[in-house]
């Protein structure tokens, strides 16, 4: 056996103990810190009690943490082989939602599995990133320039986006499209194709608006002028802005937020939890939380850059973009920068399926980190 072969065996065939050492425990601590912020926020949302939100939150995070560490130990090459199976499973769940999904707030987005309500569109985003990473990790620069090579992955993005729009769930559909586009960009698609696709979306926007549901058009109208219906469609965002402003620089104090605790602030345990935190801890608290979220995004990007194989790089970047879009959509929504939509703040908002979905994605991210030096058998990795 040659020295090169022995070296490859040492690098790619390490045991359980070695894998545990290779986990980024600093990154795990960042996730625990974020979940701790979520516990404190949900304790406040419960009126100074761990019930009904905070206790469930910490139990779900503990389960999600064990799940994340278990996934981190799975060989990334095995995960890569499962990518398209995961994608097919995600599409199947989206189809099942259309026929037997739970209807809530005018939309059919949830399905009951294992005694818990799941939103398959959230799982689909992870499966889509896996499938696109599997497709593009084989691609050379020349193949990326071939339009025919890009047709299958483009369809892979279009199918779940169309199914999510059918639910209807415009916000998640747009996030799914952006996450898919980010993988295309990271894989090396030509910029002129991106510009062309963006222009096409812009031209199609008036047609899309005409086919929106009434409540979706109302959200856009309210976004442009929330004061036009202060007690109806504009109520949520007006109360959110009042709470954000009333927090000032340092906040009103923990458990002392009036907008939240007097029930003026809607959905304070889910969509508007950032607003509640900003009211109690002020501008400084809000910026600190954003800094923690930013460190998690930057850490995921750092894992991607340190990975030696293309599959891991694309998977990590896609997961980083998915997490960033969660944060951007939620924070921009409560500030009135974008129309209101049901996007939770990851690891902070109340919700079981969102928590588990995020932790599964971080498990995949950690597997990329643990197995960052492995080589795929097809020999097409970039080292």
Q: Largest beta sheet: what is the strand line-up? A: 1-2-3
* Major sheet description: 3 strands, antiparallel
**Mean pLDDT over the full residue set:** 85
Low-confidence stretches: 3-9, 379-383
Percent helix:
55-70%
Shape: globular
Order of helices and strands: HHHHHHEEEHHHHHHHHHHH
Rounded to the nearest angstrom, the distance between the terminal CA atoms is 22 Å
Rounded to the nearest angstrom, the radius of gyration is 22 Å
Counting helices, strands and paired strands, the structural category is mainly alpha
Total domain modules: 1
Contiguous helical run count: 17
How much of the polypeptide forms β-strand, as a percent range? under 5%
What is the count of β-strands? 3
Can you tell me about this structure?
By secondary structure, the chain is mainly alpha-helical. The chain has one domain. It has 17 helices and 3 strands. The protein has helices at residues 3-12, 16-22, 25-45, 54-72, 76-81, 83-100, 120-136, 141-144, 147-166, 170-187, 191-210, 214-224, 235-246, 258-261, 273-306, 310-334, 352-370; strands spanning 102-104, 107-113, 116-118. It has a 3-stranded antiparallel beta sheet. Helix 7 packs parallel to helix 10. The two termini are 22 Å apart. The model is unreliable at 3-9 and 379-383 (pLDDT under 50).
């Amino acid at each position: 056996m040659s020295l090169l072969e022995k070296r490859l065996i040492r690098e790619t065939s390490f045991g359980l103990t070695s894998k545990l050492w290779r986990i980024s425990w600093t990154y795990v601590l960042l996730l625990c810190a974020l979940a701790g912020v979520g516990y404190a926020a949900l304790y406040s949302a419960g009126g100074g009690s761990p019930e009904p939100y905070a206790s469930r939150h910490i139990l779900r995070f503990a389960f999600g943490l064990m799940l994340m560490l278990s996934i981190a130990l799975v060989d990334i090459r095995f995960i890569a082989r499962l990518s398209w199976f995961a994608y097919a499973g995600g599409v199947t769940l989206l189809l099942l939602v259309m026929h037997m999904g739970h209807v809530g707030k005018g939309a059919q987005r949830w399905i009951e599995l294992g005694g818990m309500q799941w939103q398959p569109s959230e799982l689909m985003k992870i499966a889509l990133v896996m499938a696109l990473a599997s497709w593009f990790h084989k691609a050379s620069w020349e193949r990326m320039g071939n339009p025919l090579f890009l047709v299958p992955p483009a369809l892979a993005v279009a199918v779940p986006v169309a199914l999510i729009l059918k639910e209807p769930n415009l916000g998640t559909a747009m996030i799914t499209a952006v996450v898919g586009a980010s993988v295309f960009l990271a894989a090396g698609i030509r910029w002129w194709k991106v510009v062309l696709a963006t222009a096409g979306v812009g031209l199609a926007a008036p047609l899309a608006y005409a086919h929106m549901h009434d409540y979706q058009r109302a959200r856009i109208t309210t976004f442009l002028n929330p004061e036009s219906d202060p007690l109806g469609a504009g109520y949520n965002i007006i109360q959110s802005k009042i709470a954000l402003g009333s927090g000032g620089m340092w906040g009103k104090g923990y458990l002392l937020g009036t907008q939240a605790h007097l029930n003026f602030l809607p959905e304070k345990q889910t969509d508007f939890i950032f607003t509640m935190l900003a009211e109690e801890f002020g501008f400084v608290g809000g910026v600190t939380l954003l800094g923690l979220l930013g460190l998690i995004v930057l850490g995921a990007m750092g894992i991607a850059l340190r990975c030696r194989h293309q599959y891991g790089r694309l998977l990590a970047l896609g997961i980083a973009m998915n997490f960033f879009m969660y944060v951007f959509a939620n924070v921009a929504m409560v500030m009135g920068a974008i129309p209101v939509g049901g996007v939770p703040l990851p690891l902070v908002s109340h919700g079981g399926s969102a928590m588990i979905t995020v932790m599964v994605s971080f498990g995949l991210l950690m597997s990329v980190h643990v197995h960052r030096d492995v080589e795929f058998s097809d020999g097409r990795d970039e080292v």
